[in-house]
Amino acid sequence: MISSNADGYDYAYKPSLLGTPMEFRLADDALEWRKGGQGGRAAYGRIRRIRLSFRPQTMQSFRFLAEVWPADGPKLQIASTSSKSLVEHERLDNEYSAFVTELVHRVGAAGGNTIFDHGSPALLYWPGVLIFAGASFAIAVLAVRALQTDALAGAAFIGVFLLLFLWQAGNFFRRNRPGTYHPDAVPPLLLPRR
After folding, report:
1. Does residue 43 carry a pLDDT above 80?
2. Average pLDDT of the segment spanning 39-67
3. Between 122-148 and 152-175, two packed helices, what is the crossing angle to 10 degrees?
4. Secondary structure of 88-130 in HEC code, one letter for each residue
5. I need a labelling partner for 147 at 20 to 30 A (CA). Which of 69, 132, 177, 190 fits?
6. 103 and 12, same structural domain?
């Protein structure tokens, strides 16, 4: 959840059912965080890197992630969903978008040497695109072979599977193309729609 008050912006989410919540606060001069009994703060000018990405998981098919690397402290992850039960996750689309956008703006305004990047690392992304293209081609060939042998039900099943595969994996690769962004122009593909 996010709230705005005189001290700054607050955001919290629960990464897992049994885990403790991650709590974040945008103070005037730093990002403050707390998880259970641990916590810390990272001055905006001392944040080395912020990566935004689209990271669906098994039970969270529409999940975004902001990874923050402070110069002195652990990597912090800010997710757009929160665990409510064993199988239910709450989407925090508006709260996440507002918090991450404000965080990026504040870090950019601090004038540090922050790297603002998005998507998957290139060494993982491009081999993944090749595998995706190869698998898509192989499934399409399988559908054509099924049509050639008059297995219409099989061809229809394979065709539906191909469409779902293209939609799901294609969306992942479309949103996670590696690149950089300016802190005044947060990529809309890597934020849930408000």
Report:
1. yes
2. 91
3. 170
4. CEEECHHHHHHHHHHHHHHHHHHCCCCEEEECCCHHHHHHHHH
5. 132
6. yes
Pair (104, 136) in one structural domain: no
CB–CB of 156/146 below 8 Å?
A: no
The predicted pLDDT at position 86 comes to: 74
Q: Is 50 within a domain?
A: yes
Helices (H) and strands (E) in the chain, counts: 3, 12
Same-domain pairing of 11 and 97: yes
Would you place residue 8 in the very low, low, confident or very high pLDDT band (cuts 50, 70, 90)?
low
10 in Cβ contact with 2 (< 8 Å): yes
Instruction: State whether 99 and 134 are in the same domain.
Output: no
Contacts of residue 141, Cβ cutoff 8 Å, sequence gap at least 6: none
Provide the 8-state DSSP code for 7: T
**CATH code, 68:** 2.30.29.30
In this structure, what token pair is assigned to residue 45? 């000018």
Q: State which residues form the domain around 8.
A: 2-118
Would you say residue 154 has pLDDT above 70? yes
What tens digit of pLDDT does each residue of 106-125 get? 999 998 899 999 999 999 99
Retrieve residue 164's tokens. Answer: 């779902």
